[in-house]
Amino acid sequence: MWNWATHPVSWLSFLGMLIGTVVILLLTLVVVMYSIYWQRKFIGWIQLRIGPNRVGPFGLLQTAADVFKLLIKEDIIPNKVDRVLFMIAPIIAFVPSFMALSVIPFSRTHVFTANIAVGALFYLALSAITIHGVMIGGWASNNKYALIGSMRSAAQMLSFEIPLGMSIVGVVLMAGSINLNDIIAGQQHSVWYIIPQVLGCIVFLIASTGELNRTPFDLPEAESELVAGYHTEYSGFRFAFFMLTEYVYLFAMAGLFATLFLGGWSGPWLPGWLWFAIKALIYITFQFWVQATMPRMRVDKVMPFAWKVLLPLALFNLVITAVLKAVL
Amino acid sequence: MNFVWSWPVIAFYIIALLTLCCGVIMLSVRKVIYMALTIGGVFIGASALYFLLGADFVGVAQILIYAGAITILIMFAIMLTNHEATEPGFKWSPKNIAAAIGSVLLAVVLLLAIRSTAWPTATTSQTALDGGNSNPMAIGLVMFKGYAIPFELVSILLIVALVGAVILAKERKEDE
Predict the structure, then answer these.
(1) Which of A113, A226, A268, B85 has its CA 20 to 30 A from that of A11?
(2) Residues A37-95: pLDDT tens digits?
(3) Does the beta carbon of A177 lie under 8 angstroms from any beta carbon of chain B?
(4) Could you tell me the CATH number of the domain that includes residue B17?
(5) Could you tell me if residue A318 is inside a domain?
(6) Domain count, chain A
(7) What is the residue-wise DSSP string for B104-133?
(8) B131 — contact with chain A (CB < 8 Å)?
């Protein structure tokens, strides 16, 4: 594994770090572009439509065209906003989402994976920083819908982070480590943790949907009541950054789910990165499937659901796991 | 003092500079929301230093609790309460002068204490500190073997504080 701290200080090793970052960023952008394409196509099929099919073969360049449109749009900053905060809010939201990818092991050879001892916790901690970007963006917009949207978003992301973390603890208990690489190694020796941790897996799936602000918990941007939530006033590439954050988190959460419950890159016959891609795609497709099937939950039912249903379930799972681990 | 450039040293100076910048900005801006944001920056800078020192768990806990929960709580308080968005400008008053002298004295005392302490150097091996365990495991072993009773006492204190906060909030509601 590449260790930055032991390399001598030279432009060459700096270039190495820079290239690594840029490669991951490009990879992430491609993944995000094609998950948006897959979302539109897949939901189209579910709703008996065709989906995007005009730009490029099978509409494959549709999202590229959309991104290009957003990038060349005029950068509008409304008059009454708090200029500095309005401009840096998308950055504060995006940077942690990209950093969170650093702990997720993409493949057998960990080229870009940080082997830190607290991988799963690191992910949770970073996603808490994104909440700042969302809150600041909504507040700086000086718009009541944006403010309500950002408040809902912050409260919801904070609340769902707790059952999410508790459902991870079950896996951590089984693997005996918070390091994501060790968790995969633990699953290679036994079965994928989705089988013994089925309750934790269900809690994780629901809580991660809430954490990602996706349907049926997409209240922060409920268009029928809040226009567009916290990014109402945003347009052009600042809006694109908020969208990018959302889909990078979708990818990161898919990676986390694959790593924690589906054995990550491990699997027979196929190479590691392909296994990882398949498992991540399963999670992403599940999210889109839910999005096409479920109506939005009522706002006053979401928080009690997180605190009074998901959290006790996760704690129950934790107790059972601990007892079984001690007995067996 | 022999000084060797290495990537961690460069990272330390960048992080320290950013953290200090956040601190100075926090003291000099007059808008409360900027203060909340920059204090978040200070917390994140501190946690980056912990990561640099190899204390992964402390760094993550710092982000989760301080940069995550506490800063967001401060922001909620700022956004949901009724108050002046900007603070009045700075004026020298006897209270401010006393506070300035006090903080300079504190800084001098801290500096003297830091300079006169013999800190463990690189010759102290890592395994002597964590017994060859990973970072969270080492902390868990120490916490539940060596310091189990203080740890439980602290958790009782936290629960009492939580219950106290609930009671205080409830009483105010009944008054209205």
Answers:
(1) A113
(2) 999 899 999 999 888 888 888 888 888 888 888 888 888 888 888 888 888 888 988 99
(3) yes
(4) 1.20.120.1200
(5) yes
(6) 1
(7) HHHHHHHHHHHHHS----TTS-HHHHHTT-
(8) no
